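FAQ: What does the model actually see?

It sees only this:
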Amino acid sequence: MPFCSGQPAMCEKSLVSKDLIDKWRKLDSFIDRLASIIEEDDEIKALLEMSNINAVKRLGYNDHGPVHARIVAAASLEILNLLLEKNIELTTLKHGTTKSLEEVKLILVVASYLHDIGNSIHREYHEALGSLLARDLADRIILRVYPDIGPRRFYIRQEILSAIFSTEMNTKPLTLEASIVKLADGLDMSEGRARLPYKLGKMDMHSLSALNVKRVKVTCDDVTPVVIEIYLGDMAGFFQVEEVLLPKLENSKLKGMVRIDIYSIEGRKVAAIT
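And it is asked to produce this:
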């Protein structure tokens, strides 16, 4: 069932954007408090800003900073809620590394916010670097949220680190939760925010395709738990789908639970990929 009271009707269409996290913060007091703890942490703020300094200013890539982090966190929550609507079992609850849905939400939100902080060191191997950097940060956040949790915090921490590490394109996630974060990372692709890094100001297939992804929405239908709607200004934008979303789904535990519907900017459906 939906994880918070006041949840919108099943299968509404949610636009993936920088404002989506505000919806979840209003609907769920736990998420609101958790997001505040993360966003007010001086070290996390510095690492996200440093990630953008390296990615954007030094390498000329697109955004990998705090705005992207918020978008991924919100998209992760959207996907989680749709899976819960279909009563799909979550890996960490099944294996006992979490004891409540609230702890699952903590894993998703923290991993989403921190998944790109490895860029603060270097773009190369940033997923592995990020999972190491996030160790103390995750511990600090967990103890702020659950001061009396005791040694169980280490299990939750390791699930967060696993999800961060699994955002690497070719790494197979070990949990459904890590798969959610991996897919959510790829959904931040509209209007040049593509997750396939491209050089800003350089006109090639990467930049051309990124600029042709106009909107991304998350929804569902009676059969498919998660439906991703992608609206393209030109079919060049399909390059992003082929190079980002499909590989992320192919080796994840979400395979078979997600359909990608491709639309023209006018709303004409041109393809469906399962």
